[in-house]
Specification:
single chain; Aspartate Aminotransferase, domain 1; 6 strands; about 20% strand
Length: about 140
């Protein structure tokens, strides 16, 4: 719980009135983050990789669905359930993910129902979950960026 409050304290005042562009800018400022289009030119994703790696891993997927801005973020299963319960209806399982992967992704509506600070904390969590899956040498490289 201490990590959560530390992240929330860091998040206060960083981003207000969350938009897809602000989310993308925030994510792209993370060490090793870059924009990619593996699903075509209309579907950007934000990945992370160390300089020595050839491929990155997705940690944020900002998109518009039926005219509404949303973002899908990685999470561990317990954190995913926590946010889906806390913001029922505004945070749902990754809508575009195969059922077996859905518990590990949350899609968040960017309609103001989830506080900006919480979205920042979810982005930080997603980045942490994904970078923890990278090889140790890549994790070390990212800490040096």
């Amino acid at each position: 719980m201490g990590l959560y409050y530390n992240q929330l304290t860091i998040a206060r005042g960083i981003v207000r009135n969350m938009t897809l562009q602000k989310i993308s800018d925030y994510c792209l400022a993370k060490p090793g983050a870059y924009l990619d289009y593996p699903f075509g030119p209309d579907f950007p994703v934000i990945k992370v990789k160390a300089p020595s790696q050839e491929k990155g891993r997705i940690f944020a997927q900002p998109f518009v669905l039926k005219g509404l801005p949303k973002v899908t973020l990685n999470c561990d299963q317990a954190t995913g359930e926590f946010y889906r319960d806390l913001y029922y209806g505004s945070v749902v399982r990754g809508w575009h993910c195969p059922p077996v992967q859905q518990p590990y992704f949350n899609t968040i509506e960017l309609d103001g129902s989830v506080p900006d600070e919480e979205i920042i904390v979810m982005i930080e969590h997603s980045y942490s979950v994904v970078t923890a899956k990278l090889p140790k040498y890549a994790q070390r490289e990212l800490t040096q960026l």
